[in-house]
Amino acid sequence: MTLYKTPKATNPSESADRMQCAGKALEELLISAKHQECLTVGVYESAKVMNVNPDSVAFCVLVTDKEYECNIALQIHFTLIQAFCFENDIDIVKVNDLQHMAKIVGCPGMSCDLQDMHCVLLTSPNEKSWRDINLQKLNAYCEESRICNEFLPVVTLPAR
């Protein structure tokens, strides 16, 4: 039997600081990926990319808010996406602010369909984008969260 070192319990302010840092890193990463055209937005579009070329996926973001928490079909999609990401060693986070995410990835008004915003993939067409410092910060945040048995960490995006 292997014994693992249990991480120290973090106080709420440390946890909030970690989440805020991860939120800032996520926002910067998404903006950068948008400019490089390395984002796939939408549950079905993301599923297609993961099915055809899972090695191109560098990071996954599931997006929801209170309005969609009781949507059973969406929760089933989230469960399938999470399982796929875990199976393929793709780090994944959850964001609880659909409106803010829409502004970041390019839907500033209500002109787009917010239902298409529930999954955002960061894809990597080349090796350079894998070395983004913000991606490394988010990977470290996900790793720390897994050590604390939080397998789908929640990230709060910074207020604008």
How would you state the average pLDDT, rounded?
Answer: 83
Largest sheet: 5 strands, mixed
Contiguous runs where pLDDT drops below 50 for at least 5 residues: 1-9
- Structural class, from helix and strand content? alpha/beta
Number of helices: 5
Q: List how many beta strands DSSP finds.
A: 5
Radius of gyration: 16 Å
- What is the approximate shape? globular
Defining key terms:
160 residues, alpha/beta, 46% helix, 13% strand, disordered N terminus
What is this entry, summarized?
The protein has 160 residues and is α/β, with parallel strands linked by helices. The chain has helices spanning 12-35, 43-52, 72-87, 98-105, 133-147; strands spanning 39-41, 57-63, 92-95, 119-123, 154-155.
Tell me what you see in this structure.
The protein has 160 residues and is of the alpha/beta class. Helices cover 46% and strands 13% of the residues. The chain has a five-stranded mixed β-sheet, sandwiched between helices. Helix 1 runs antiparallel to helix 5. It is globular, with a radius of gyration of 16 Å. It starts with 11 loop residues before the first helix and ends in a 5-residue tail after the last strand.
Please specify the SSE layout and strand pairing.
Layout: H1 12-35, E1 39-41, H2 43-52, E2 57-63, H3 72-87, E3 92-95, H4 98-105, E4 119-123, H5 133-147, E5 154-155
Parallel strand pairs: 2-3, 3-5
Antiparallel strand pairs: 1-4, 2-4
